[in-house]
Design a protein that fits this description.
The chain has helices at 15-18, 62-65, 103-124, 128-162, and strands at 2-8, 20-25, 31-32, 37-40, 45-47, 51-52, 56-61, 74-79, 85-91, 100-101. It has 163 residues and is an alpha+beta fold. It has 2 domains: 2-122, Sandwich (Immunoglobulin-like); 127-162. A hairpin with a 5-residue loop joins strand 8 and strand 9. The longest helix has 35 residues, at 128-162. The protein starts with a strand and ends with a helix. The structure holds calcium ion (CA) (2 copies). One calcium ion binds next to loops.
Length: 163
């Protein structure tokens, strides 16, 4: 299936060069988008000509589509070659650099972001996880020391027996 996944209506800086629309083919088969159309609320349309490979995202810059995304709200429609509305995405306001994510993808995208945040926190060393991992490794060190000590003691005992 091909969906409108994300859009950037209000990039920091020049909107005419920075805006984009991202499509995704989330399926397991390539889909030929030739004849498909992206249309905004005002009726401005862009006809696609590309092939959408399976499991691939396609970013379409405004310089390509000519579709201006209003910062104070807009709706985009994705129409198949037969004119059927396959998907749509709406927003009421787009703040600076805000990426509007289609509701069906919000959950998965949030997960990606959560993982990124966790990694950052780990790198900064401010996360609870680091504390528990830290105490885990202290336990590991203690076990290793205990093992080494018992081997050493065993060796010393063995040596004193040999004497
Ligand atoms: Ca804009
Ligand atoms: Ca802007």
């Amino acid at each position: 299936m091909v969906y409108l996944k994300e859009i950037l209506p209000n990039p920091a800086g020049d909107d005419t060069s920075g805006e984009w629309i991202k499509l995704v083919n989330s399926g397991e088969e390539d889909i030929n988008l030739s004849g498909w159309v992206i249309k905004d609320a005002g009726g401005k349309a862009y006809s696609l000509t590309t092939l959408a490979p399976k499991n691939t995202e396609i970013v379409l810059p405004r310089s390509l589509t000519g579709i201006a995304l209003n910062n104070n709200g807009d709706t985009l429609y994705l129409l198949s070659a037969s004119g059927e509305t396959v998907d749509s995405i709406s927003y009421t306001e787009a703040s600076d650099d805000e990426i509007i994510i289609a509701s069906r993808f919000v959950e998965s995208t949030r997960k990606e972001k959560a993982e990124t945040t966790t990694l950052e926190q780990l790198a900064l060393g401010g996360d609870d996880k680091i504390v528990s991992e830290g105490s885990f490794s202290i336990v590991m060190v203690a076990i290793v020391i205990a093992l080494a000590a018992s081997i050493l003691i065993g060796a010393i005992l063995k040596r004193s027996e040999e004497k």
